[in-house]
Design goal:
alpha+beta, Glutaredoxin, four-stranded mixed beta sheet, 5 helices
């Protein structure tokens, strides 16, 4: 009987050792890893900052692009009366984009989106429809108008005259 008790107590000791090992493993898993938390937090904060920064740059660029109040500020200005749903407007924009890079230092380029209230009011004030380019001198006087899908050569000629 004592042998049986010894075997039983030995078996219980082994079980207790295994339980203690498992407890130690569980306790090791519960140790909080501050370094990982800080690294992950830094990563996600950086990602959020990039997303917010990109949005702010984009929205500021759009504000500048559609700011029609600059007409007459001393710099010649070209305003495209534009409807982004219109295929002809997109073709005119493409033609303008292809030639305007040569004139960005002398002329400012703006867009009047006729789907927005300010753009629609601007087009109505100047009595023009979409698919139109309006050319203003530095004092804000309209000096030229191109209606319809103008070719790159027509646009270039009008820009050269405005830049003089």
């Amino acid at each position: 009987m004592t042998n049986k008790k010894k075997k039983t107590t030995q078996a219980q000791k082994n079980k207790n050792k295994n339980k203690n090992k498992n407890k130690n493993k569980i306790q090791k898993k519960r140790v909080f890893n501050w370094k990982k938390l800080i690294q992950k937090s830094f990563f996600y904060l950086t990602l959020c900052a990039l997303i917010v920064g990109t949005f702010l740059i984009y929205s500021n660029t759009n504000k500048i692009k559609y700011d029609l109040s600059v007409v007459g500020n001393g710099t010649p200005t070209v305003v495209q009366i534009h409807d982004h749903n219109c295929q002809l407007c997109r073709q005119l924009k493409s033609n303008l984009d292809d030639v305007k890079t040569d004139f960005t230092e002398e002329i400012q380029f703006k867009t009047a989106n006729i789907l927005a209230k300010k753009g629609a009011n601007f087009a109505q004030k100047h009595d023009v429809a979409h698919v139109t380019l309006l050319f203003f001198n530095g004092q804000g006087k309209r000096v030229n108008t191109l209606q319809g899908v103008s070719s790159k050569d027509e646009i270039r000629t009008a820009l050269e005259q405005l830049a003089k």
